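Readers of this paper often ask what the protein records in our data store actually look like. An entry from our holdings is shown next, in its original layout:
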Amino acid sequence: MFEIGGSLREARLKRGLTPADVQKAIRIRDRYLQALEEERWELLPGDAYVKGFLRTYADYLGLDGSLYVEEYNSRFAHPDEQPQLVPERFARRKNRVGGVGFLRPLVAVGVIVAIVAGFTAWQLRSSSGGKQGTPPTTSGRTTTASQHTTPRKTHKKKHVSVALPTRAVLVASRGNSWLWVRSGSASGATVFEGTLLQGKSLPVNLGSGPVWIRIGDPTSIDVRLGGKLVHGLPTQVGNVLLSRRGVKAA
């Protein structure tokens, strides 16, 4: 969990931009930009607009818009109402004259007639076959059918591979730390840049590949991958490459 509005404002100020500059570039009114930075969602037209504005604003600032939309969904989005599956007016039609209840006797009669007709035809075929007599035997030999032995299927034990986690969480457990997160490598697109306050956490998506991280104070940061604490962070300012398998120096 991280501050959506605060990180947007910090990224804008670092680039020396005013709300008027951003409005001119991405065509989003400055009052909506201010509402995003202050996380005053009630001032925005609705969830769909909030997500679109967040993605556009974050991408324009060089951040990962998808990460901000995911964070908003997990904390603030309103789930859609579930529609009624069977309208009441359709349920009442079943009891009307000429509905399902009226057709059931006709179906039952049709089934009985079909059974009687099939039994009569079978009797006629049986009596006709009896008049023709039994067919002569072709020879006195006894033919033994070859027995086909079905080979037993051997069930191969399938190797079950454990799926690697696709998300990690950076936690400022012991103090504030400046972070710079980039996609893939040190030259990749910026995912997050700012100060992670003590007690706050930053989710990182690893589904598209590893991320490069520069950590200002590694002794304040914990990295959790699949819920487990990851070891291997440097003891001073340094860079690491975080993947679904763990961290290594970069």
